[in-house]
Amino acid sequence: MDLSEVERSTLLAWADQPGPLAARARIVLACADGLTASDAAARLGVSAATVTKWRSRFLQRGTDGLSDAPRPGRPRSADREEAERLVLSAIAEARRGGRVPTTRSLARTVGLSQSTVSRIWREHRTPEPPRTELSTPDRVGHGLLSDQVYQVLRQRIVTGELVPGQRLVESDIARRLGTSQAPAREAIKRLAHEGLVSSLPHRGNYVAEISAEQAREVRDVRVVLEEFAARQATVRIQPRTLRVLEESVDRMRTAAAASDIGAFREADITFHRDVCVASGNSFLTRLWRTIEPNLWGLHVVSNPLYGGDWTAMAERHADLVAALAAGDPDEAARLFAAHAMGKASSTC
């Protein structure tokens, strides 16, 4: 699936906003980056059928296909509109850690059936940004709990609170975070997919231990890919793409100021993925997505153990954006290769 610059920019903007469009945009972006329906579903925490549905809608109608079509039948009643308002308010309250009414009590309040209120709840419940603490198990749906457990565990791995080689036991995680074992199990699967957790048959799950040799090999491949991507992107870069890259740099600056290493790494790897996309070579993008879990898991991108100035690291990415905008393919390729090798762009 190939995206135009306008389509990708639109989808990236939607993906950062609350609401159902964000999840649909992330599905299309994942498919455009070469992920299969099952891989995209595993990464995004949705079903393969959901991925297939919105990918097909996009292929048929473009970005317009991601919006909700008018529903058949009679217009929504004032009672239903009131039910939607109450459900949305309840979901927001749940995400703030507050008390949440049951669907039965909401149904009594608005005079609709419990099944109707439950359906409204499912329609509007969408993933939210990572939270530092879990809600209690009965406050929100299973999918959201799984996302929260995943974010907590990943943050603890990135910050070193969970050390390489440490065993991750589902029942222990569930007990400590106040959930059932199912969300913990799904979270560990996602972390294993990213390379942050090693799953050993008949032995269990462990925080991945970083191999210096593997990290060197992946870094060598990254240098080749980034040098090529920068050279190709420079001759076809669009102002909208430059703005997208600048937004990633801004997120790095914000994360650095807040000492949020996890958010910095997210923005960093998104930056380099978008440069690959800007090259216009879809096969290069697929290659990047293939090694991306290893770049993350082997700490080849934004090593969370880095002891230097994270703000300065963000500014190095600003230098890379400037190089792309300057239009010199050789210079951009040199700077990106130096950056991938771990050298400051201003010193080479």
UniProtKB/TrEMBL annotation:
InterPro entries: GntR_C, Homeodomain-like_sf, TF_FadR/GntR_C, Tscrpt_reg_HTH_GntR, WH-like_DNA-bd_sf, WH_DNA-bd_sf. PROSITE patterns: HTH_GNTR. Residues 62-82 are annotated as: Disordered. Keywords: DNA-binding, Transcription, Transcription regulation. Residues 143-210 form the HTH gntR-type domain. GO terms for molecular function: DNA binding; DNA-binding transcription factor activity. SUPFAM superfamilies: GntR ligand-binding domain-like, Homeodomain-like, Winged helix' DNA-binding domain. CDD domains: WHTH_GntR (cd07377). This is DNA-binding GntR family transcriptional regulator. It comes from Actinophytocola algeriensis. The lineage of its organism: Bacteria, Bacillati, Actinomycetota, Actinomycetes, Pseudonocardiales.
